[in-house]
Amino acid sequence: MMNKLIFGRYIPGDSIIHRLDPRTKLLMSFYFIGIIFLANNWQSYLFLAVFTFIAILLSKINLGFFLRGVRPLLWLIIFTVALQMFFTSGGEVYWQWGIFRLTEFGVINGIFIFCRFVLIIFISTLLTLSTPPLALSDAIEAILRPLKVIKFPVHEISLMLSIALRFVPTLMDETEKIMNAQRARGVDFGEGSIVQKMKAIVPLLIPLFVSSFNRAEDLATAMEARGYQGGDGRTKYRILHWQVKDTLTVIVFVFVTIGLVWLKN
Amino acid sequence: MEPIVELKDLTFRYQPDDEKPALDQVSLTINEGEWVAIIGHNGSGKSTLAKTINGLLLPENGEVRVKGQTLAEENIWAIRRAVGMVFQNPDNQFVGATVEDDIAFGMENQGIPREDMVTRVQEALEQVRMTPFATKEPARLSGGQKQRVAIAGVVALRPDVIILDEATSMLDPEGRFEVIEAVKKIKEKNQLTVISITHDIDEAANANRVLVMKQGRLFKEGTPEEIFSAGPELIELGLDLPFPEKLKLALKAQGLEVPSQYLTEEGMVEWLWTSVLNK
Fold first, then answer.
1. Mean pLDDT of successive 10-residue segments in chain A (265 residues)?
2. Do B150 and B190 reside in the same domain of the chain?
3. Is the separation of the CB atoms in B244 and B268 below 8 Å?
4. Same domain, yes or no, for B195 and B248?
5. Buried-exposed string B110-142: b where 16+ CB fall within 10 A, e elsewhere
6. In this complex, do B80 and A238 lie within 8 Å of one another by their Cβ atoms?
7. Chain centroid offset of residue B192 CA
8. What is the distance between the alpha carbons of residues A13 and A11, in angstroms, rounded to a whole number?
9. Which range marks the domain in which residue B276 is found?
10. Are residues B253 and B222 in the same domain?
11. Dist CA A19 CA A77 (whole Å)
12. Quick one: which of A31, A84, A144, A156 could link to A110 by a disulfide (CB 3.0–4.6 Å)?
C-alpha cells in the first residue's frame, strides 16, 4: 500500500541535480512553479517543457517515476481540463450540446492547463526524488531563518519536522504490526461498506495514537536527559554548503525568466 | 575511592496522594569507577531511582549529590552533563534522522563547535563499532545496534556516570551481549562509573556490587556472589537465577550434595570435575 506512494520518496543518486544544495532546489522549484503562470502561448510552454525535460535528464532518474507521480492526480487534471474545454467561450465553435460547448479557445486553454499541471508535478517530483527528506528539512529551516525576527519559532518547527520525518518509517512499521495483530483477531480491513470500513479503522487508530503518546513521552525524557534545553545556544552538526553550481543554477533561472518574458505575448 | 553519586533518604511519589511512595527512604552511595547493578521486580522503584539521579524526577524528600554537588534547580544541567542515560526502548530514544545525527544531538545541545563534534562522533562510533553505519537511518538498524548508537551518543558527551535504565531488556540475547560488551570496553577505557538497572542476571553478574530493590526500598546490597547465593529467594523477588544456581538446584533435587556458596560458571565446572574424581 505504502510502496505505491511516489510523493515524498527519495531515489538515491549522484547526478548534478542530486548534489545541488537543497536550498537551491527548494527555492528554485517554488520559483519555477511561480513563473509557469507567466507562460501564455505555445512558444513559452514549449520552452518551459524543454527546460523541465533537460532538468529531468540531468537528474538521471527514470522517467517512469515522474509519470507515476502524475497518476494519483490524473482525475483532478482531467476534471479541470474538461471544465476548461467545455465552458470557455470564444473563437470557432467545434461542437455544441446543451450548455457544453467545445470552442477553439476552450481547447487551447485546456491544453495549457494540462501542460501547467504536468510541469508543476514534474518539477515538484524532481525536487522530492532528488533530495533526501532530511536535507529538505534542513533547507526549510535555513530558508525560514529570517522569520526569527518576527518571533517565528524556526528551531521548534524544524525540530518537529525532522523528528516527524525520522518517525515516519517507525510508525509505518508499527501500523503494519497493529494491522496484522488485529487481522489475526478477526478484523477485516478494507472490506464491506464504507461505514464498515471506517469502523474497522478504529482498532488500528486508537492503539497507534496511544503508542504515539508513549513514544513522545519517552523521546522527550531521552532528549532532556541528553541536555536538550531548547534552541538557544545550540550548535549544528549538519551544515549546508553553497557551491558554484548553486550560483550557476540561479543564473540559469534568471535566463529562463528572461527567455520566458521575451517569448510571451 | 571517591563517592560520585550519593543519595540520602530519597522519597518520591508520582502523585502527591499516592499511599505507597515509589521510593521510600532510599540511601546509597556509588563510588567512582564502580559498576553497580540495581535489580528488583517490576514496580520496585528501580527506574524511578535512576531518573532521580539526574533530576528527570525531583524527589519529595531527601538529597541527591553528584560529584559533590547537591542537585538543585541551578545545577540540574551540569548534573545531566555528568550523568548520561540510556533508556529501554531503542526506537523511542533515537532523536536524530541518521546514526551520526543522533550521536551529535547531545553535543549540539551543549553548543560544542562543529569540528569537535565531527571528531567526537567518529571516536564514539569506533568505540561501539558502528563506524560503517554512520549515515544509516534508524529504520535500517537492529535493536542492539540502536542501543549501541544510544550509548555512543552518551559516550560522546564524556559523562562521569552512565546509567543503563533497562537498556538491554528489549533486545535479543545477541544484541544484549553486544551492548554489554560495548559498555564494558567503554567503562575500562574512559574510567566511567556504570549504574545498570536490569532484570538480566548476566548483566548483574558483571557488576562490582548489586543492589536489590523491593517495594521502593533498598532491600539488600552486596557483591554478585553474596546476592546470588540467596538462591530461590531471588525468584521470589521476581528475578531469574544465574545458570550455575539453577544447575545446583536441579542436582540437589536429584539428591546430590552441592556447595552452598555461589559458584560462577567456571567455579561450577571446577567443582563438578573434582567431585566426580573424588568418587
1. 53 79 91 90 90 90 84 88 80 72 83 90 88 86 90 89 87 92 88 85 93 94 90 85 89 91 83
2. yes
3. yes
4. no
5. bebeeeebeebbeebbebbebeebeeebbeebe
6. no
7. 12
8. 6
9. 242-279
10. no
11. 32
12. A84
A167 Cα to chain B: minimum distance (Å): 9
User: How many Å is the Cα radius of gyration of chain B?
Assistant: 20
* CATH number for B216: 3.40.50.300
Q: How far apart are CA B156 and CA B162, in angstroms?
A: 12
Instruction: List beta partners, residue B37.
Output: B196, B210
Give the pLDDT confidence of B51-99 residue by residue, as tens digits.
999 888 888 888 899 988 888 888 889 899 999 999 999 999 999 888 9
Q: Kindly determine whether residue A235 and residue B97, on different chains, have CB atoms separated by under 8 Å.
A: no
Half-sphere exposure of B135 (CA within 13 A, CB side): 4
B134 plus B261 within the same structural domain? no
Are the Cβ atoms of B98 and A219 closer than 8 angstroms? no
On whether both B28 and B66 belong to a single domain, the answer is: yes
Amino acid identity of A204?
Answer: L
Number of domains in chain B: 2
Domain residue limits, chain A: 1-131+241-265, 153-234
Contact A218 B157 (CB under 8 A): no
Question: ipTM, 2 decimals?
Answer: 0.86
Q: CA B25 to CA A58: how far, in whole Å?
A: 69
Asked if B252 and B127 sit in the same domain, the reply is no
Query: Which of A235, A236, A239, A241 to probe by mutation at the B interface, max B CB count within 10 Å?
Result: A235
**A101: Cβ–Cβ under 8 A, 6 or more apart, which residues?**
A86, A87, A89, A93, A95
Size of interface A-B (CB pairs under 8 A): 95
Residue A205: phi and psi, rounded to 5, are: -70, -45
Confidence of residue B279 (pLDDT cuts 50, 70, 90): low
Indicate if B153 and B16 belong to the same structural domain.
yes
Q: Which residue has the cell 526549510?
A: A140
In this structure, the number of other CB atoms found within 10 A of the CB of residue A194 comes to 7
The cell numbers describing B11, all together, are 522519597
Tell whether B182 and B269 lie within a shared domain.
no
- Which pLDDT tens digit goes with each residue over B104-153? 999 999 999 999 999 999 999 999 999 999 988 888 899 899 999 999 99
